[in-house]
Design brief:
Number of helices: 2
Number of strands: 9
Largest sheet: 8 strands, mixed, barrel
CATH class: Mainly Beta
Shape: globular
CATH topology: Sortase, Chain: A
Low-confidence stretches: 16-27
Radius of gyration: 23 Å
Number of domains: 1
Structural class: alpha+beta
Strand order of the largest sheet: 1-2-3-4-8-9-6-5
CATH architecture: Beta Barrel
Mean pLDDT: 86
CATH superfamily: Sortase
Helix content: 25-40%
Amino acid sequence: MTVRLIVRSFSELCITVGALIVLFVAYLLFWTGVKADNAADHQIDDLHHQWARSAAAAPAAGSGTAAPSKPKPATTPVPVVYRAGKPFAVMYIPRLGRDWSRPVLQNTAVGTLQRGLGHYAGTARLGATGNFAVAGHRRTYGDPFKDFPKLRPGDAVVLTDGTTWFTYRIDKKPYLTVPSDTGVIAPVPVKSGFQGAGRYLTLTTCDPEWGSSHRLIAWGHLDSTQPVTKGKPAALRG
């Protein structure tokens, strides 16, 4: 009787553990993706509304019936403030899907990468001289960089901050390295082949697909910019 009870209890425990494992896998594969996709869509919508309000306010600020006595000197646009954990741009990579888009948030904290892509604090601002470096999950939390290995030289990576379109071009196939190789996000990325100062892009994600022992790196350079008032860049009109 005692042996039978032990066997039955052990069987019930195995069933319970198995069910918990299945639920955990379902959470990782499905629910984190649902939450991440919803968060990403919400943040992109918020950015678009914010940018629309800013664009509408700009001409209103200069409206009025009285003509100025003399032209006002041109003013330098106020740079977008990158606030920790907050979105400031949207990224599009046609190679990863016609409708692929993700918000870019400031920093690469765990909570940040669960809601979108993360800009490495301390790297260059979008479009500026230096290295604009961005990280994203390969799997789980929406699988933003699931197809990262498909990136090829010449592929467009397009970003906007609401005023400007920035089109970067990938320069080589993804490079495999280890997590401690921080030189890949240096102002002139180590082993990228770039020589001297420039306006560079670095994308990073985990490898293998369901692990994190290594990192896949893609490097690019800024190819062109244009105001959003001129419509979408050619890379997004295909």
